[in-house]
Amino acid sequence: MSHEVLWTGAEIAEAVSGKVKNQDWEASGVSIDSRSLLPGDLFVAIIGPYHDGHEFASAALANGAAAVLVSEVPENIADNGNVIVVEDTLKALEMLGAAARERANTKIVAVTGSVGKTGTKESLLHILSLQGKTHASVGSFNNHWGVPLSLSRMPRDTEYAIFELGMNHPGELGPLSRMVKPHVALITTIEAVHLEFFADVEAIARAKAEIFEGLTPSGSVILNGDNIYGGLLKSIAANAGITRILTFGEKSEADVKLTDFTLYSDYSDVAVKIASHDVFFKLGVPGRHWISNILGVLGAVSELGADIEEATACLDELKSPKGRGARHMVPCTGGSYMVIDDSYNASPASMRASLEVLSNLYPDGKGRRIAVLGDMLELGEKSGDIHRSLKEDICAAKVDLLFACGSNMAQLEKAMPSTIATVHQANSELLVKHLLDAAGPGDIVLIKGSLGSKMRIPLEALLARRSVDAVPSKEDEI
Fold it and tell me: I need a labelling partner for 45 at 20 to 30 A (CA). Which of 59, 147, 160, 472 fits?
């Protein structure tokens, strides 16, 4: 966090209607995690499903917190510590986020969608930060505590802000949107995710449409016109009284229209028409799915009033975020192999997209394409069928060796042809030895699965092979 003054003690006390003995202090940031807290942060003691932040309030002050926000004062807090007392700390965090939203004269875009939210948010951050002071939610802070936390961290002189909004149940997105009050609402796409909690994919689309609830008057909606649910979302937006509705995609009527593209192993050349304006650019991240994301990004940039030419000029420098396609070169006996870190999460659509990227990469020498896949979670009663259907994508990607883990991936193992060597284990930890024994020079190793599948375990095992004494090179992270 920045060391500039984000909040004064008096401003925080007023925003959260809190009781405070001393308000003569300043906070340079806001934190709900004492482990990552920086000196000068306000520490908010959130009561979560596994931990009560009040247990760490004293440690937060000892680590340099400007103050702690609590619903009851822990006994181990010194009398001279700066303490704000409220009835409910999560509600207070929401109030602080609302105060940040009200005080800032900021152009705001909110991003949701079944896949591509974080990549889209990071792309917007990359573009807009070159055109003005820009703030964005960190990582995937997109839920009922991540959104108000991200809002509360927004400096008052922010020119552009991007907030990622997520959900896995109906009724969750509306309150987040009403908190953010975006000028632009962008839905990347609608796909079969979280089916465990929805009757069908149309129900997911309707839940994503809740993002329209917080849109400012005269605000803009940007939709994926190529998605089967684009028409439904457009109708919902129009029925909500929204008049500025734009689409992106390959269809002739798209407001942001893809006119041509060429895919390469580590980038793409792209041509787009925005209204009557043609733009051509190099996209520094590979994959057809990234092109679709960037179309939505350019639509948002245009609606925010930022410069499109400047936006496209910097897209060649765009890199895949950690856990979402970042590439690493790992030395081994006889050479090195590439690891594609797509370990953060997975859905049927993103799994197919990652396998397509793998198919466009060519191993060196006798190297192989190796897919290391964990369960895709929250897919409901159709989970087995969905996992089995990945067989076609794996075959199309010309995968030589498949490592899979989890009960759902067991269904895929049964469906795989004998021509593709397959190793299945109950969990990701049990895959490690097999994977370390197999990976060799020239190989390209894709690692992907839902967060609960813990695919970072095999990822970190592979990356640990890099010598700690080695001098970092440009090839270490591509």
Answer: 160
139 vs 121: which has the higher pLDDT:
121
For residue 207 the two structure tokens come to 């839940």
Q: Do the Cβ atoms of 350 and 115 come closer than 8 Å? A: yes
CA-angle at 250, arms to 244 and 255, nearest 5°: 20
Say how far apart CA 159 and CA 161 lie, in whole Å. 7
Say whether 108 sits in a helix, a strand or coil: strand
Using alpha carbons only, give the angle 295, 234, 206 rounded to the nearest 5 degrees: 105
SS3 373: strand
Asked whether residue 80 carries a pLDDT value surpassing 80, the answer given is: no
Beta strands 277-283; 268-274: pairing state:
antiparallel
SS3 281: strand
Q: What percentage of the chain reaches a pLDDT higher than 70?
A: 96
What are the residue ranges of helices labelled H in 104-169? Answer: 117-128, 146-152
Query: pLDDT tens-digit profile of 287-316?
Result: 999 999 999 999 999 999 999 999 999 999
Strands in 50-191 per DSSP E: 67-70, 83-85, 107-112, 134-136, 160-164, 184-187
Residues 172, 194: contact at Cβ < 8 Å?
A: no
pLDDT range class, residue 141, cuts 50, 70, 90: confident
Nearest in space to 68 (alpha carbons), one of 98, 36, 33 = 33
Q: How far apart are CA 53 and CA 51, in angstroms?
A: 6
Going by C-alpha positions, the residue among 82, 99, 109 that lies closest to residue 16 is 99
**Contact (Cβ atoms closer than 8 angstroms) between residue 329 and residue 445:** no
Q: Which helix (H) or strand (E) holds 248?
A: strand 244-249
Cα separation, 289 vs 261, whole angstroms? 12
d(CA 169, CA 180): 19
The model's pTM = 0.87
Nearest to 285 by CA among 259, 315, 312: 315
**Mean predicted confidence (pLDDT) in 57-78:** 90
Contacts of 474 (CB under 8 A, 6+ apart): none
The contacts found for 354-357 with CB under 8 angstroms, 24 or more apart, are 354/287, 354/325, 354/446, 354/448, 355/390, 355/393, 355/394, 355/396, 355/397, 355/399, 355/446, 356/287, 356/288, 356/289, 356/393, 356/396, 356/397, 357/286, 357/287, 357/325, 357/446
- What mean pLDDT value characterizes the chain? 92
Question: What CA–CA distance (Å, rounded) separates 252 from 259?
Answer: 9
Secondary structure element (H or E) that encloses residue 273, with its range? strand 268-274
Nearest to 173 by CA among 213, 147, 201, 210: 210
For the chain, the first-to-last Cα distance in angstroms comes to: 27
